[in-house]
Amino acid sequence: MKTQFLSTLFALSLLVVSCKKQNEKQEENPTDTKIEVAEFRELFDGENFTGWRLYRGDEPGKAWKIEEGALVFYPPTERPQGESYNLVSEEEFTNFELSLEWKIQKNGNSGIFWGVYESEEFGQPYQTGPEIQVLDNQGHPDALNGEDRQAGALYDMVPPSEDHTNAAGEWNECILHVNHETGQGWVKMNGKLIVTFPVKGDGWDNLVKESKFADWKGFGDYPKGRLGLQDHGDTVAYRKIKIKEL
């Protein structure tokens, strides 16, 4: 009995020593146990246009203003034929979550692009960049052209499951998730998941084939690209623009 007790005590001693050495090893190599989590960072500080410019252009110019911490687009009363004031980010992104708030005027229309490829070949960001619709669902006629034209939709491709937008003139929080590693994308509107979609492969290709973009050269072909805020000719505001790279 005594021999068995001593054997058990010896085994316990070895276990304690082993655990102590393991703890010391982890303390010496803290990165072995730490998991880094990406954080959101500002893309717009509410004070200046740093990080943003016109598509294929320079400073935002006369159409975009900064008011009360928001980027506000006022469509010019007169503009040359074909001139537009779409904003794009200076940075390019592939896998990310974009968080922002938007507010559209009554009967207004705008949009949020990603995967925008900037070149002389493409005159507008929507020629390459897929769009999350920004719309007054109650007042703009495009809302009657199909649910995949309504606010929060992956435009002309995937409709929102429900309408969780606030009325025109009120702020809406929108989060866009795009991850080419997992192949998944989604949209949340005011905290509610309303759209999911594939971002690559046969699933994505089939969405494009069934949309108005089926014959558009370059549409959705660029996993890495700029973000964009659309000039659709209506007053719109964006604020609290943040990005988290995945």
From TrEMBL:
The keyword Hydrolase applies. The keyword GTP-binding does not apply. Coiled coil: none annotated. One of its GO terms (molecular function) is hydrolase activity. InterPro entries: AL/BT2_dom. Keywords: Hydrolase. Residues 40-244 form the 3-keto-alpha-glucoside-1,2-lyase/3-keto-2-hydroxy-glucal hydratase domain. This is Glycosyl hydrolase. It comes from Aureicoccus marinus. The lineage of its organism: Bacteria, Pseudomonadati, Bacteroidota, Flavobacteriia, Flavobacteriales.
